[in-house]
Amino acid sequence: MRKFVHAAIAALMATVGAIAFAPQASAQEVDIYITPGYHEANGRQWLTTCEPYSVTHRCTTQIWATQVSYVNGRFVQKNDWYFNNLTYRPSPRHIWKSNPLAAFGKVGPTEHKWTASDGREWRTECDTSVTGRGGCRNWVKADVISRSGSGYKWLREQWVLNSMVRFGDVQPLPEPVLPVDPDLSDVVIVPIVASDVPATIGGMTRYAAEGIVLYTRDIMSEAGVGVVAFGDLGVSLEEWAMVLLDPVRPNAKTVCGVLDDSGVYGCIFVTPKYGSVMAVNVDTSDSDVTLVATTLSMSMR
Q1: Which of 60, 189, 214, 267 lies most in the core, judged by the most C-beta atoms within 10 Å?
Q2: Is the pTM of this model over 0.70?
Q3: Which of 192, 251, 266, 219 is nearest to 13 (CA)?
Q4: Digit-coded pLDDT (tens) for 169-179
């Protein structure tokens, strides 16, 4: 058992050491739509990238969110970076004289609808009460998925914001706001009290040693699920999801996926007593890890 315990602890700590949390908050005065880099605003995480466009830059802003898609006849949720909108950084009106995205550079207020070469319908407003003076907004008609009671439904031909155009003097692109990784070198394991977790889960037996809990079907096989607690790291489930590849939410209290640098499959949940708790794969199946984590997320205090 000692060899298994040491292997599990090594795997757990290597996993934690590989964590690189993406964004800390940007300064409040930063315009997240035209400033490249990572941002936090209104409690959400944002990622903006910019590329040259005519005399200015076009910026794409993504948001870390749960998106629902229709896959093989059912609605499926997934957490990831998703497109939010495009923003064209300030440029003179005259460069837009042949482009409907800016009402052909005309001073408004203006509002018009038009059809692109691919057949999509667009609506553009410039210099209105919605856009403010010196700017335009563009919506495209699309089918979207909307929540309906406890499920989801399709809403057909809805106007969805696609892009914004800013008028003004061309300005240099600011330096990107880079992610800042927290210092996890002083993270201390919070010992899990054996009586706080079930003795068995899915045919796996609980073993407690050196502050962690191990669930295994055969202690001699040195394979199972390692569970470790780290206390209150001030990290939400949404932030944990951002360090996972292809994160999934098997229940409302748990997020699972592959930790990018370590390649280890793990699940994380947060409890009042133990803070962030991680269950990781130690030469077992990912389904075992998910089962242990979801069970503990509902039973641990």
Answers
A1: 267
A2: no
A3: 266
A4: 999 998 887 66
